[in-house]
């Protein structure tokens, strides 16, 4: 493959007007490497500090002492940075455009309105006994109250933990317990693609699980008015409590290293881990990346299609844009409803200038042909962005041509829940684009490729992607388990942050992410641990053993392929496949729905009993000729059996 085939040079209008052109990117990047202290001291000034930091960087990636602190003697409040400081200049500017699932529903919320409602909610949280350091779980639809709840927590120093609205009651329970949440904020129902999802009912079910009695109250937004059960003394209507509060609430002075939020994400082993993000460094980094990568200009309409349940929603729907005084669009629904042209229709309706979405959404549209966007013109678009998984060059080109009318640069942004903000991405005024490459590192980011022994590889090469030094936006720990944080990210290669991703670097120094090198799946941009799905399956009484792998999927990027060994005497029927599918959906959530289940009388194992996933991945991908060395298997004949009965996908 030639990397040089399609290079899209920087557009002149971007080079002339963007926040950074090539010379500025290079100078700033160099400064961020040579003098991180000076560089980030300067960047911290983009925020309003109650007490400005004098200690800038105090970080160690050493395996025996992982300790990351930025701006540690500074004091600030995140909500004051996202709201209060904008009131004078842009109090009447729209902060949030909300577009409902139903195309007839939308509203604009100004900075002044968002400020007032957030303060009322902050006072309401106090009335419920929530204070500095308490954790609050949010399980909400994509409605403005979700952003308000995040900001209200930050105003009083409470720590939010947002759980994606597609997760199951058990997942909610696990996270309420893990974060020790006194309060859950939810809605009666969410609405997506015309369908109602019973959020409150899920919370009710979650809170029957052992250990959830830490949670004292449930604050319920009335979104649909659908019927719900009500537990007196525990459940509180959002509007009833919030309406009567004062719209002034003094922002709590938080230390830069006080926690801002917990966000659970999947890893290769064990239960999902709650990454801990802190205050000063996170906000500095979210705001700076939002400004430079999206080249956000005053007055522009910016739309990130993610859900606030994921890190992308945290950093690039709520915190980055609002810290920058942007107008951020929040969409409740799904891109395919009521028609596949919906995304374009929303762009036209609200004159969106910057559209940040995921490759899976692009591929889903591609499947409907060139004319899928014909109901819209999308003339307002200036810039496109991609996140969540590698974007294949075909999808990139289609995105550029059909959605962006061949005039919008695409910023392919590589980053992770753990990194807090964008790490590798082009700056549209500075970086020529190569479809499929996330291109070059952001300011302050020092990527490297290492071999499996941790030796750094130079020049054009391929290896494991690591980051060599700290940056302000990164997670500081795993909530309640620093040892696991060290183990997961800093023990594979001493002194380096290990991303879990494989990557290629070309002769121009461009980075091409090749995907996870661990047992983490990326299905439609959603991260899932194979171990999580396996442990769900083996909890079913019919299942003796299960192995889960990813396989290439045209739209989702990766699909979920499951090999199941049944207990003796259980019939392998299609009904049972359906039942197992439902089981996983119910246990984890619909995003974990298996695409393929194959009955496996035996699984390929080493003599020490370790499942050889490499082989299972090959069979799932229908690459049965290149299975490699199977000589270490305890019983090589199981492989032939699996190939012979390979499931039709
Ligand atoms: C922001 C987010 C992180 C994993 C990451 C990588 C994959 C994300 C990507 C990308 C290639 C991109 N990933 N962006 N791969 N190109 N532009 O997605 O966070 O949900 O934690 O997922 O997603 O594999 O390691 P998260």
Q: Compute the average pLDDT.
A: 95
Whole-number tally of structural domains: 3
Distinct compounds present: ligand 6R9
CATH class call of the largest domain: Alpha Beta
The largest β sheet comes out as: 8 strands, mixed
Binding site for CoA: 192-195, 312, 524, 585
Enzyme class: ligase
Binding site for ATP: 388-390, 412-417, 501, 516, 527
InterPro entries: Ac_CoA_lig, ACAS_N, AMP-bd_C, AMP-bd_C_sf, AMP-binding_CS, AMP-dep_synth/lig_dom, ANL_N_sf
What would you note in describing this structure?
The structure is a single chain. The protein has 649 residues and is an alpha/beta fold. It has 3 domains: 12-80 and 279-514, ANL, N-terminal domain (Rossmann fold), CATH 3.40.50; 110-255, Rossmann fold (3-Layer(aba) Sandwich), CATH 3.40.50.980; 524-645, ANL, C-terminal domain (GMP Synthetase, Chain A, domain 3, 2-Layer Sandwich). It contains 20 helices and 31 strands. The strands form 8 sheets. The protein has an 8-stranded mixed beta sheet, with helices on both faces. It has a 7-stranded mixed beta sheet with strand order 5-4-17-16-18-19-20, sandwiched between helices. Strands 22-21-23-25-26 form a 5-stranded antiparallel beta sheet. β21 (447-450) and β22 (456-457) form a beta hairpin. α2 (22-34) crosses α3, α8 (169-179) crosses α9 (199-206) and α14 (359-366) crosses α15 (393-403). The longest helix is centred in the N-terminal third of the chain and has 17 residues, at 111-127. Residues 265, 310-312, 386-390, 412-417, 438, 499-501, 513, 515-516, 522, 527 line the site of ligand 6R9. This is Acetyl-coenzyme A synthetase. It catalyses: acetate + ATP + CoA = acetyl-CoA + AMP + diphosphate. CoA binds at residues 192-195, 312, 524, 585. Its EC number is 6.2.1.1.
């Amino acid at each position: 493959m030639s990397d040089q085939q399609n290079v899209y040079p920087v557009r002149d209008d971007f080079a002339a007007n963007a926040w950074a052109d090539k010379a500025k990117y290079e100078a700033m990047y160099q400064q961020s490497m040579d003098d991180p202290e000076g560089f980030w001291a300067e960047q911290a000034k983009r925020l309003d500090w109650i007490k400005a930091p004098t200690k800038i960087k105090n970080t160690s990636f050493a395996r025996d002492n992982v300790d990351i602190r930025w701006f540690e003697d500074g004091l600030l409040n995140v909500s004051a940075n996202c709201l209060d400081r904008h009131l004078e200049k842009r109090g009447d500017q729209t902060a949030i455009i909300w577009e409902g699932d139903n195309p007839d529903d939308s509203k604009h919320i100004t900075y002044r309105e968002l400020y007032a409602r957030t303060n009322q909610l902050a006072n309401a949280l106090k009335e419920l006994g929530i204070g500095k350091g308490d954790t609050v779980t949010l399980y909400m639809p994509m409605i403005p109250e979700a952003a308000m709840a995040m900001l209200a927590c930050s105003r009083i120093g409470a720590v939010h933990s947002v759980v994606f609205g597609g997760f199951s009651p058990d997942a909610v329970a696990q996270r309420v317990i893990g974060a020790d949440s006194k309060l859950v904020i939810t809605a009666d129902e969410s609405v997506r693609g015309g369908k109602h999802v019973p959020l409150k009912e899920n919370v009710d079910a979650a809170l029957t699980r052992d250990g959830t009695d830490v949670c004292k109250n449930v604050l319920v937004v009335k979104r649909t008015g659908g019927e719900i059960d009500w537990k007196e003394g525990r459940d509180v209507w959002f509007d009833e409590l919030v309406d009567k509060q004062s719209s002034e609430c003094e922002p709590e002075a938080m230390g830069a290293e006080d926690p801002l939020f917990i966000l659970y994400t999947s890893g290769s082993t064990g239960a999902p881990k709650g990454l801990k993000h802190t205050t000063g460094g996170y906000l500095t980094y979210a705001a700076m990346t939002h400004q430079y990568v999206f080249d956000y200009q005053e007055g522009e309409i910016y739309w990130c299609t993610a859900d606030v349940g994921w890190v992308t929603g945290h950093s690039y729907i709520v915190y980055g844009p609002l810290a920058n005084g942007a107008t951020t669009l929040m969409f409740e629904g799904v891109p395919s409803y009521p028609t596949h042209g919906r995304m374009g229709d929303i762009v036209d309706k609200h004159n969106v200038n910057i559209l940040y979405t995921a490759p899976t959404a692009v591929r889903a549209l591609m499947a409907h042909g060139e004319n899928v966007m014909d109901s819209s013109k999308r003339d307002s678009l200036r810039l496109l962005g991609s996140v969540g998984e590698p974007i294949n060059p075909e999808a990139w080109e289609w995105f550029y041509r059909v959605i962006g009318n061949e005039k919008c640069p695409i910023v392919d942004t590589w980053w992770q829940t753990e990194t807090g903000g964008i790490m590798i991405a082009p700056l549209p005024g500075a970086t020529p684009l190569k479809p499929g490459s996330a291109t070059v590192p952001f300011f302050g980011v020092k990527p490297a490729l290492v071999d499996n022994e941790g030796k750094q590889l130079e020049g054009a090469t391929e290896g494991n992607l690591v980051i060599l030094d700290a940056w302000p936006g990164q997670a500081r720990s795993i909530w309640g388990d620093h040892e696991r944080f060290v183990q997961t990210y800093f023990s594979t290669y001493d002194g380096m942050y290990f991303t879990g991703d494989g990557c290629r670097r070309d002769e121009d120094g461009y980075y091409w992410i090749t995907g996870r090198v661990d047992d983490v799946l990326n299905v439609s941009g959603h991260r899932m641990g194979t171990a999580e799905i396996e442990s769900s399956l083996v909890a079913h009484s019919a299942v003796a053993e299960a192995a889960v792998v990813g396989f290439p999927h045209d739209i989702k990027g990766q699909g979920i392929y499951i090999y199941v060994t049944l207990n003796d005497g259980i019939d392998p029927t299609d009904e049972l496949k359906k039942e197992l599918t439902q089981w996983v959906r119910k246990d984890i959530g619909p995003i974990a729905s298996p695409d393929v289940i194959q009955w496996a009388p035996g699984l390929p194992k080493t003599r020490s009993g370790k499942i050889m996933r490499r082989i299972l991945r090959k069979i799932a991908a229908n690459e049965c000729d290149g299975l490699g060395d199977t000589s270490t298997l305890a019983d090589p004949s199981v492989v032939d059996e699996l190939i012979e009965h390979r499931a039709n996908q």
